[in-house]
Predict the structure.
Amino acid sequence: YGLHRGHFVRRYPETSRRPLYLLPTFGAFVLAAVVLLVVFVPGTRRPLGLLVGAAAAFSIAAGLWEAVRARRASVALLYPPLLLATYLAYGLAFVRGFTSPSLKRYQRSER
């Protein structure tokens, strides 16, 4: 989804340029900046640790909510890492789609 959304934002801005579509990409860049700051600027560890902790708490709460809603305890364990993975995958694929001059058309291979 991110790949094509990025391509559509670049190619058809009048219908596809919405701030909400940029949120995962912005989040991926913020996460990368946080990691770099924590590694290279020791004074940022505590405040950024609190920020990351708050995000993790939100993700765990969302996982618990979905587990109760789905009536499956395993959802609570799977939700936080999968939420992060899909968020990052969408955000990075969006950049790839936005910067690609064109997307190849996929055709069925004949067997």
About this structure: The longest helix spans residues 45-70. The two ends are 27 Å apart (CA to CA). The chain has a mean pLDDT of 85.
